[in-house]
Structure formats: C-alpha cells, structure tokens
Design a protein that fits this description.
Its main location: membrane. The chain has 295 residues and is mostly helical. The protein has 11 helices and no strands. It has one domain. It is globular and about 55 Å long.
C-alpha cells in the first residue's frame, strides 16, 4: 500500500487539486474564494500523507519552528491575497489590450499562466543565489532544518514580493484575468506543498519534468555550492536550460543535511528572521561536500 501511495501521491495530488480548482471556477462557476477552502483541504491531505509515509520521520516533529512557519505562511498568503485585490487596477494600467487569449479553455489559460510565471520565478530564484543582496533575503527560506509541506510558504515577505513580481509582471502586460490569477496563486501554493513535502514519494520519470520534493531536497542541502541546483518552481525545464538540474540515488538526504552550512546559528524566531537581512553577520566555515554530491 505504501509503495502505491509513494508512486501515485505527487501526480494525483498535483493534478487532483489543481484540476478541482479549475472545475470549481470554470464548470461550477463558483467564487475564487472557494480556492481557499480547497487549499485547506490540500494542507490536511499533505499533513496526513507526511505522517503516513514520511521520507524522514523526525521532520514531522516541530523543532521550535512551527509557530514561525505559521506566521510566515499567514503573512505571505495575506500579501498574495492583497495583490489579487489590486490586480484589476494593475492590468488596466499595464496590459496590452487584447493580448491575453481569453477565448482559450480555462485550463489552457492557466497552463499559459503557470508556464510564464514559472520562468520568471525560477530565474529570480536563480538570481537570488548569485546576487548577495538578494541572497540575504532568500537565506531566510534556506535556513530550514527540516522539509515538510508547510514550510514551502516560509519566505521573507520582501523576497516573496520580488519573486511574485518576476512571475506576475509579464502576465500583467498580457492582461491576465483575475480568475486565472487566482487559480495561478492556488496552483503555486499546491506546488510549494509538493516541492517541500516530507512524503516519501517515488514519482519515477515524472521527477525529470516536475520540480517536486525528490528533486528540490537537493536544493536545500547545507553544503555550499552543492545546493546551487534545481531552482525551478514548477518545471525542471529551466534547470535543464541553466545546466543546474541534479539528481542522484547514491545519496539519501536526511536529518542534518539541510540549512545554511556557514550559518548553523541562523535565527529561528520570526521577527529575528525579518531583521536578519539588514544586519551584519559573520560566516563560519562551509561543511565538506559529501563525495556523492560532488559535481
């Protein structure tokens, strides 16, 4: 039974919840507010699966970080909701009239939005590992010592806004409708749950296409440049183009492999994490890269 769950979990979770969102809005004609209830259902399924078939059992236990992660998620999702409220005005200001393919089926419009946003967010993510001032903001996300679905939403709010802007600006110029933007935000939240999931998923060849947890865990390694891989949000296409795609079965990422190696004492408190990018910090020595992770 666990083998079946491991093989089907990622594609069924991704396609099931995003497909349900498209059905609710497109076929059901319901308000986009229903997507919030659907996301809560996805959270519950995510937590249940993590406890049933965990990749690393100890990652399910709080390390004094649960309250902080909840605060990050609430504030960042609230900022996202406020952005959606401002969307009509932004589209009216920036859009090229008639550029968005409104005649396409809803699912195809969402597919276009995901593809465009994925390019912008993935490239901003890549830049955040290259530019020191961006890294200081992004480091908050990389400070996690365990990976589970909920901490995919753990980001410094300023970095969250920069990533969102990189993904959304081209869509604003195209004139993305508000319901597609809401579905896009929902799809990103579903993807982040899968990307940081503690489920022992075995997606097989799908891992080379979708940036789910088996690929993304390597990105959170604490071994310096060894973690400069697998930047994509949705599709590994961008890492193939950047030359940063990486996966090996010779190394199982476990407790103690995650975080920022040069900053093992990175603050855990929420407010301290908000202030950290603006404070001077001393870096320690990078831990040695395990042989199986050397590229």
């Amino acid at each position: 039974m666990k083998t079946i769950i491991a093989g089907l979990y990622a594609p069924v979770f991704w396609g099931g919840f995003i497909g349900a969102g498209v059905w609710l809005i497109g076929v059901g004609g319901l308000s986009t507010l229903w997507l919030m209830l659907l996301f809560i259902a996805a959270l519950l399924v995510s937590f249940l699966a993590e406890w049933t078939v965990p990749y690393e059992a100890c990652w399910n236990r709080s390390a004094g970080d649960r309250r902080r992660d909840i605060l990050h998620a609430l504030i960042n999702e609230t900022l996202g909701a406020l952005g959606l409220l401002a969307l009509p005005a932004l589209v009216a200001l920036l859009a090229i009239e008639g550029a968005w393919p409104r005649g396409w089926p809803l699912w195809l419009q969402l597919g276009l939005a995901i593809f465009v946003a994925d390019a912008g967010v993935s490239l901003m993510h890549y830049a955040s590992h290259r530019l020191p001032w961006l890294w200081r903001l992004h480091a908050v996300h990389h400070s996690v010592q365990r990976l589970y679905g909920f901490n995919g939403l753990m980001k410094h709010p300023l970095h969250q806004m920069l990533e969102a802007s990189a993904g959304l600006l081209p869509l604003l110029v195209l004139g993305i409708p508000q319901d597609i933007a809401a579905l896009l935000a929902f799809s990103i939240a579903i993807q982040l749950l899968l990307q940081h999931s503690n489920v022992d998923m075995r997606p097989g060849p799908w891992r080379w296409i979708f940036a789910w947890a088996p690929m993304h865990r390597f990105h959170h390694m604490k071994y310096g440049k060894a973690g400069d891989v697998n930047f994509a949000l949705f599709f590994n296409l961008w890492d193939w183009l950047l030359g940063t795609v990486f996966y090996t079965q010779d190394y199982q990422i476990r407790q103690g492999d995650l975080g920022i190696g040069s900053r093992p004492d990175f603050p855990v408190d929420y407010v301290a994490q908000l202030l950290d990018p603006f404070e001077s910090t001393a870096l320690g020595e990078e831990p040695l890269v395990p042989p199986a992770l050397r590229r």
